[in-house]
C-alpha cells in the first residue's frame, strides 16, 4: 500500500472512529486497515490513535496529522484529476444518497444520461429519507431538503423547492373548499407527516406577507413516508402540503386539487452536502453540476 493509500485509510479510521466501520466503507478487510495504521505509525515514529475495544480516537499528534492527511489526499486527487479530465475524464465509484421520491421519480430515470456522459464513473445510488452519515457510511454526497443544522459538511445550494396545498375532490366535496387559512378551523383536517428521523410532526404553514405562519390543524392519520402521505390524501383523509413536482401526476389525473394557492408554505432549500475537503473530487463536481441541471426544471426550483 503506497503512502497516499495509507493516508486515505488513516483518515477514514479517524472519521469513523472505528476500524471495522472504516474497513466496511473502504471495502477492505479489518486486518488490512489495522495493519495500514500500524505501518503509518511505524513510518512516522509516533502514536496516532488511542484504541479501546469500542472505538478509536486520534492523539494530539494524530489529530494534527489527520488535517495534514486531508490536504495531501486532496492535493493528490486534484493532481490526478487534471490529467484524467483532459484525457478520459473523471472515473471511479461515486456513492450518493437522495430523498426517496426525488430518487425514484427524477434521479434514477435520468441516470442513463449521466452514465453516458461519464462512462468511467459507476454510481451507487442510495434512495432513503433518513439522515445518512456520510463519513460512517462512505457516501460521497447527499441531497437534503429543508433547513439544515450546522454539520461541518460542505453545502452546495441547489435551489428553493416550492410547496403547494392539495386535497382530493372527495374530501373537498365533504368538507368544502378552503379559501384562506381562516377557513381551516371550520371542520377541516390534515394528514400528519412525521419526520422519519426525529418523529416530529410538520405543522400547517403558509406565507403571510413574506412571514411564515403556522396553525394547529386536526389530523387523525399520521404517516412517515411521502408515498403514504400522498396516498392518504388521495383517499380523502385530509389536506397535505407537498412539493409541487411530487403530485403532478395526481393533479393531472384529477385525483388531487390544489387549494389556497395564495397561501402556500415557504419553499424549502435543496442542498447537496459532501465531506469537508479542500476541494471535492472531480466525480462529485460533475455529479453536482448534472444534478442541479436536472432538478431545476424537474422540481421548479427557484
TrEMBL record:
PROSITE patterns registered for this protein in UniProt: HTH_LYSR
Molecular function GO terms recorded: DNA-binding transcription factor activity; sequence-specific DNA binding
Sorted UniProt keywords: DNA-binding, Transcription, Transcription regulation
GO biological process, one term: DNA-templated transcription
UniProt keyword DNA-binding present: yes
Superkingdom to which the source organism belongs: Bacteria
Record flagged with keyword DNA-binding: yes
Pfam families given in the database record: HTH_1, LysR_substrate
Ranges for domain HTH lysR-type: 1-59
Family assignment from sequence similarity: Belongs to the LysR transcriptional regulatory family.
Protein name per the record: D-malate degradation protein R
UniProt organism field: Achromobacter aegrifaciens
Chain's gene name: dmlR_45
Amino acid at each position: 500500500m503506497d503512502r497516499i493509500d495509507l493516508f486515505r485509510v488513516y483518515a477514514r479510521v479517524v472519521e469513523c472512529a472505528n476500524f471495522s466501520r472504516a474497513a466496511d466503507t473502504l471495502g477492505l478487510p479489518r486486518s488490512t486497515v489495522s495493519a495500514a495504521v500500524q505501518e503509518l505509525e511505524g513510518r512516522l515514529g509516533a502514536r496516532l490513535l488511542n484504541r479501546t475495544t469500542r472505538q478509536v480516537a486520534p492523539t494530539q499528534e494524530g489529530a494534527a496529522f489527520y488535517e495534514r492527511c486531508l490536504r495531501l489526499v486532496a492535493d493528490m486527487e486534484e493532481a490526478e484529476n487534471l490529467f484524467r479530465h483532459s484525457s478520459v475524464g473523471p472515473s471511479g465509484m461515486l456513492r450518493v444518497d437522495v430523498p426517496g421520491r426525488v430518487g425514484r421519480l427524477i434521479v434514477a430515470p435520468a441516470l442513463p444520461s449521466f452514465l453516458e456522459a461519464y462512462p468511467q464513473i459507476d454510481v451507487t445510488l442510495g434512495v432513503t429519507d433518513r439522515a445518512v452519515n456520510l463519513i460512517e457510511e462512505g457516501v460521497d454526497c447527499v441531497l437534503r431538503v429543508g433547513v439544515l443544522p450546522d454539520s461541518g459538511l460542505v453545502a452546495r445550494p441547489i435551489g428553493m423547492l416550492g410547496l403547494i396545498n392539495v386535497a382530493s375532490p372527495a374530501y373537498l366535496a365533504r368538507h368544502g373548499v378552503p379559501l384562506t387559512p381562516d377557513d381551516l378551523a371550520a371542520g377541516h383536517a390534515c394528514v400528519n407527516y412525521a419526520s422519519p428521523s426525529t418523529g416530529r410532526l410538520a405543522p400547517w404553514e403558509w406565507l403571510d406577507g413574506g412571514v411564515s405562519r403556522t396553525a394547529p390543524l386536526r389530523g387523525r392519520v399520521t404517516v412517515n413516508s411521502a408515498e403514504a402521505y400522498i396516498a392518504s390524501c388521495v383517499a380523502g383523509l385530509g389536506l397535505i402540503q407537498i412539493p409541487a413536482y411530487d403530485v403532478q401526476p395526481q393533479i393531472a389525473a384529477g385525483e388531487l386539487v390544489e387549494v389556497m394557492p395564495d397561501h402556500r408554505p415557504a419553499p424549502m432549500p435543496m442542498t447537496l452536502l459532501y465531506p469537508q475537503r479542500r476541494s471535492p473530487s472531480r466525480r462529485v463536481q460533475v455529479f453536482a453540476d448534472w444534478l442541479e441541471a436536472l432538478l431545476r426544471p424537474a422540481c421548479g426550483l427557484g
